[in-house]
């Protein structure tokens, strides 16, 4: 029998699927650009979320830097 298709991916599997680093996945989750499911300490990402992020253009995953330091913008 064929195994059931995978629905939830670990951070490392999600990073490999999107051709990103695990820290980029963490940044996407932290900034709310990628929704995740937490089971205890595990962070799992649904397949549909990976597909949604892959279809979208995310030009700036990491915060901007100026002279090697993170530029923090304040809400007006």
Condensed summary:
With 76 residues, the chain is α+β, with helices and mostly antiparallel strands. 34% of the residues lie in helices and 20% in strands. The mean pLDDT is 84.
Task: Write a structural description.
By secondary structure, this protein is an alpha+beta fold. The protein has one domain (8-70). It has 3 helices and 5 strands. It has helices at residues 11-18, 22-30, 47-55; strands spanning 8-10, 37-39, 42-46, 65-66, 69-70. The strands form 2 sheets. A 3-stranded antiparallel beta sheet has the order 1-3-2. It has a two-stranded antiparallel ribbon with strand order 4-5. Helix 1 crosses helix 2. The model has no long low-confidence stretch (mean pLDDT 84).
- Beta percentage is 15-25%
The largest sheet, given as strand count, sense and whether it forms a barrel, is: 3 strands, antiparallel
Average pLDDT works out at: 84
Domain tally: 1
Category from helices, strands and their pairing: alpha+beta
Oligomer: single chain
Summed up, the helix count is 3
Question: What descriptors fit this protein?
Answer:
20% strand; two-stranded antiparallel sheet; 76 residues; 3 helices; 3-stranded antiparallel β-sheet; alpha+beta
């Amino acid at each position: 029998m064929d195994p059931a298709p995978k629905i939830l991916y670990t951070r490392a599997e999600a990073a490999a699927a999107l051709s990103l680093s695990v820290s980029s996945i963490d940044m996407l989750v932290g900034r709310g650009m990628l929704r995740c499911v937490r089971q205890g300490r595990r962070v799992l990402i649904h397949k549909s979320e990976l597909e949604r992020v892959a279809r979208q253009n995310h030009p700036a995953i990491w915060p901007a830097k100026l002279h090697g330091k993170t530029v923090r913008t304040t809400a007006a």
